[in-house]
Amino acid sequence: MNRLLIVLGLTIFAALTARADDGSDLWLPPDRARAGMETLDIARAEVEGIGDVEFHVSADVLPGVTGPDGYTITRQNGKTVISAVSPVGVLYGAYHLQRLVRTGGVPPESVIRESPRYDLRLLNHWDNLDGTVERGYAGHSLWQWDELPGTLSPRYRQYARANASVGINGTVLNNVNATPLILRTDYLHKVKALADVFRPYGIKVYLSVNFSSPVLLGGLDTSDPLDAGVAAWWAEKADEIYGLIPDFGGFLVKANSEGQPGPQDYGRTHSDGANMLARALAPHGGIVMWRAFVYDPDSDDRARQAYDEFIGLDGRFDGNVILQVKNGPIDFQPREPFNPLFGAMERTRLMVEFQITQEYLGHSVQLAYLAPLYKECLDADTYAHGRGSTVAAVTDGTMSGYRPSAIAGVANIGLDANWTGHHFAQANWYCFGRLAWDHTLSSGQIAEEWLRMTFTGDDGFVEPVKRMMLASREAVVDYMMPLGLHHIFAEGHHYGPEPWYKQAVRPDWSSVYYHRADSTGIGFDRTSAGSNSTGQYFPPLREIFDDPSLCPDNLLLWFHRLPWDYRMANGDTLWDNLCLRYQAGVDAAREFQKIWDSIEGKIDRERFLHVQSRLRRQASDAVWWRDACLLYFQTHSGMPFPPGMERPVHDLDELKQIRLDLKHHN
Ligand code: GCV
């Protein structure tokens, strides 16, 4: 009897003290707003309990604040006053105040002035209408197309709230590999229902469109962009959309890439296609985001292709077309140099596309905090207009004056209770939004904000875990593909290693195409003596990248093919360096486990255990990566492993047999 009482007592105590947390609240406090509220009422609900807060909405531009989304926060007569030119500006101010209070700050006496660096801060969902998500690792799509427009999942508003809290103001709902069905009238009514939920949170909807829609949906016999009937079909479709959704944002288009149709099917150019769509949207104020992610079967270097295709079209795009360019020239690798199109197309609006979903960085199994990757690209100097022409400066409108400026991230969100699969993948959604608002924030500051709001303000938790987050992306680079190696993933799913992979449908989808290892050396010669992709960069970068002694170590094998015994700046051979970098990655992954174990008890058990088990898998997969890559490369180098490297624990032939069960990953 006594024992029963004790057990009962302990159970109640445990339930009261350690609230189980499935991560569904993200970084946000309990939601006090309700469906159907207007923007200012939502803002009011968000600052409830934060003392005396007043809102001022005035059409006059506030000093030091630009654009409709900016705001000021001031202290006046003991009150906190949020002022903005629009209700949504006030909402952003309310989230700022909420963040300050929840991260331990108090509303300061000095004035806060905020304006976003990018006008359009967008998520791209690669969500299919059948509920699957391309490269999604957090369950099925949020959008319940079968139930819409009649039934509205409560998650739609939670999604809008989370986005607004970090300043995201637009969302492309469907996959760039787009079905024409999304433009059918019944689907447009579903899209309208979502737009209505998102609007009070300042979020506009956009759609990915299939370039062949006039044929596939409209029954026309061509989708040629220069055909008058085709242009009329799109104009009519645009009228229909805007009739339902007056603030519809526009179209995103993947054309003539990976099997998608496009203007080249009719002998037309990308600008012909983009401008035709842009003209359909222009009367309504919509934009076209035209992707630069293309291939050229006749080119011998995948990294050159977007630049070669688009550079000649500079100046040929209409004013409401923005070219959407992936951060690097290949495809969201753990590390790439920035795409040379940035800065090079002076008479074209350009936006950066990042990937938030971790297609090439361990899916939702591995912890990789991506703010350092985003900032590495945004802070990179293109030298397009001399020193200081960073990717951020040439895309955010400060150098070109082009408006609206825009930035996009491929979403990592799904139906999983914690939205993103891995609890720490939430930080990548969060940091994308924060950097889109202000790319001058540091990765550390953003990580710290996120940790304090998502887990606890206990410094004994925040400091070590922040360190782990900041080291995590580099660790992934080290144990997957250090020194500028890239795209040596297993076929298709892009989770594990397969450096020996050569039978791809296209050569530039294989691994051997990229690392080119043989007995004489390793790496891709992209110098002026090779494919000359270095020549696509402005001086002095092209000279720096061209010379192995000047090229940063972390891009060495991206730009150079070098012998295994090449002497690196530290005096070691390339082979030894490569081995030790892989080892450093493994060591870091193991260190993450120790850091995480050290904070046990500081947060709820549910999330603690979840992350702990994922870190265990990450460390073991890091060993898999190291062994697979080094044992395989050793068959070419013929060199012994250096003393500082742990010996492999796997056998190469065994590793070659691994076929992952993709159900765990998609
Ligand atoms: C949406 C990569 C991905 C594809 C993706 C493509 C793209 O190749 O593996 O899944 O397709 O990029 O960005 O269009």
In short:
With 666 residues, the protein is α/β, with parallel strands linked by helices.
Low-pLDDT runs: 4-18
**Helix segment tally:** 20
Average pLDDT confidence is 95
What compounds are bound to the protein? 4-O-methyl-alpha-D-glucopyranuronic acid
Q: Return the structural class.
A: alpha/beta
What are its keywords?
12 strands, 666 residues, four-stranded mixed beta sheet, eight-stranded parallel β-barrel, single chain, globular
Textual characterization of the structure:
The protein has 666 residues and is of the alpha/beta class. It has helices at 2-17, 39-46, 87-102, 154-165, 185-198, 213-216, 228-244, 270-281, 305-310, 371-378, 391-395, 426-437, 443-454, 459-480, 512-515, 541-546, 556-559, 574-598, 605-637, 652-657; strands spanning 53-57, 71-76, 79-84, 112-114, 120-124, 170-172, 204-208, 250-253, 287-291, 321-326, 350-355, 406-410. It has an 8-stranded parallel barrel. Mean pLDDT is 95; it is low at 4-18. It binds 4-O-methyl-alpha-D-glucopyranuronic acid (GCV). 4-O-methyl-alpha-D-glucopyranuronic acid binds at residues 126, 134-135, 176-177, 254, 258, 293, 331, 359. The site of 4-O-methyl-alpha-D-glucopyranuronic acid has 10 residues, from loops.
